[in-house]
Amino acid sequence: MSQISTKGPSKSNEESILSYTRKWVNLVNRGGLTTVGDDVYLAFQALEIAVKEFLGRSIPSQKKDKQQVIEYISNDEDVQFFWSCVTGTISEEGAQELLKAIVNLWITIRGFARAAAYMEAYKISKDKVTGKSKSLRKELKRAEVAKDE
After folding, report:
1. Considering its fold, how many domains does the chain have in total?
2. Per residue in 16-54, pLDDT tens?
3. How many CB atoms lie within 10 A of CB 86?
4. Does 1 fall in a domain?
5. What is the pTM of this model?
6. Residues 6-31 as b or e (16 or more Cβ within 10 Å = b)
């Protein structure tokens, strides 16, 4: 999937992404799935790109202030552009409050997913470095049997 800029993707590229997504949603939908319109999809896509961009350029161990992240993403040009397409008739103040609430939830979800990925990577790397160790009881029992012999 290509990056979206403030100019927006080319019409043919945008249509291919949107038509592919519609086909996929229709294929997976078994009747209970809530679908969103193209404008909302593009706004969420811009939101996800902004989140990945922000988190990608930061150091994983560096602590991030959630409000700072929300402000950065809420003020992103692409997010603002596509959000204005979604919220056409809502007042500017109401639209911005709604955007910040959505970004807050999005950051929470992505934060938990990112933390789980880091934990998984840490566990894998720790297993490779230290190897799997036997439980303490087994080690004590083995040492006791060896001492008796």
Report:
1. 1
2. 888 888 888 888 888 887 888 888 889 999 999 998 888
3. 19
4. no
5. 0.64
6. eeebeeeeeeebbeebeeeeeeeeee
Split at pLDDT 50, 70, 90, the class of 149 is low
Domain assignment of residue 59, given as a range:
11-148
CA distance 45 to 5: 11
Inform me whether the pLDDT recorded for 130 exceeds 60. Answer: no
Residue 128 lies in a domain: yes
Domain contains 68? yes
44, part of any domain:
yes
- For 32, the token pair is 């209970």
Could you tell me which of 44, 26, 46 has the C-alpha nearest to residue 35? 26
Span 69-114, pLDDT tens digits? 888 888 899 999 999 888 888 888 888 999 999 999 998 888 888 8
- Taking the C-alpha atoms of residue 36 and residue 27, their distance in angstroms, rounded to an integer, is 15
